[in-house]
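FORM 7B: Structural annotation worksheet

SECTION A. Query
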Amino acid sequence: MQLVPRWALLSSGCAPVLLVGGWTIAALLEGPAYDPVAQTISVLAAYGSAGFWVMTGAFLALGVCHLLTAWGLRAAALAGRVALGGGGVSAFVVVLLPAPSSGGSLRHGSVAAVGFALLAVWPLLAADRGGAAPWGLRPVPSIVATASMCVGAAWFVIEMHLHGAAGVAERLVTSIQSLLPFVVVASCLRHSDHPRPSH
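SECTION B. Predicted structure
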């Protein structure tokens, strides 16, 4: 029995490519004035930045990818699928409320925080506690994934407070968040192709 449709591999696999490609191209357009170690991705999507349209497009595409993957990931618990889809919706809202060209924005920061929280907890909410679940939906990998993202978020907050390597911390966390759905979908497809023998 097919746990997820094969097209979910495409939707989930495109997410990290679009996100990393978006911030890479947008940073190149910004030139040396942009410091990817210290500055966040949101700076690239701020009004007036040279990479505004590139990063905005990347966020919109990322949101679509997460929504499609959540729809196709039928093997996951409904709460996890809703959280993943909510993370996709938050990417749309981040586009509607971009960061200002200088300084912070409570609205933008709040939406980004909600999106992060949803994408951090979805693996835990999606976990299948049954013994025959695909590897990516088992409790231990799900707990490890959520814990890793929470640790990464704590590092990001610390770096923001210290005016340190916030850009590096943010890229690490968002890379994990965008790649994880692909790992889970791949594990579900592998599980479908190689089911456990019944006893």
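SECTION C. Observations
The chain has a mean pLDDT of 90. Residues 166-193 form the longest helix (28 residues).

SECTION D. Sign-off
Analyst initials: ____
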